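JOB MANIFEST
job_type = single_chain_structure
chain_count = 1
residues = 173
[input]
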Amino acid sequence: MTAITHQQNTAQSLTYSTRIDLPTEVRSQVNTLLNQSLATAIDLKTQIKCSHWNVKGQNFYQLHELFDEIAAQIEEFIDLLAERIVTLGGEALGTARIAAERSELPEYPFNTVDGMEHVAALADRLAIYAKSLRQNIDATDQLGDMNTNDLFVEISRAIDKRLWFLEAHLQHS
């Protein structure tokens, strides 16, 4: 086991005491879910920014702005996820290296230039994240942590809406 892997595994299972009345085991399981979601959200934000910087084509400005808006919203969610982890007595594992290692997303297709290709690539990635969020909603419901459940619901609702914004560009009459 490498030093980084060992350090990450130790940090992920570590919980600090808190007066929050959720059992330590529940908080630890929830923090595992939260850290996974955090890694994916960080990766998603960077992939969206990559699209924002590299988009070309007829709808350049509209897509450039849309991608920036989505990235900014994801940034807010990153902060909420990290703060929830720490609130539950865990350690937010939010570095770029950890995000790259743990993200559920595929690598971004760097040969993408056309605006609609960027839209499709981002829609694919938002759909993956949306599915993961719904799984986390179910898991936190079963674990009895309704506050984290509510956070996942909030993020899921926003991701679904942003996915709709992207998919609307891909739909033709």
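[summary]
Confidence is low (pLDDT under 50) at residues 1-11.
The chain has six helices and no strands.
exit_status = 0
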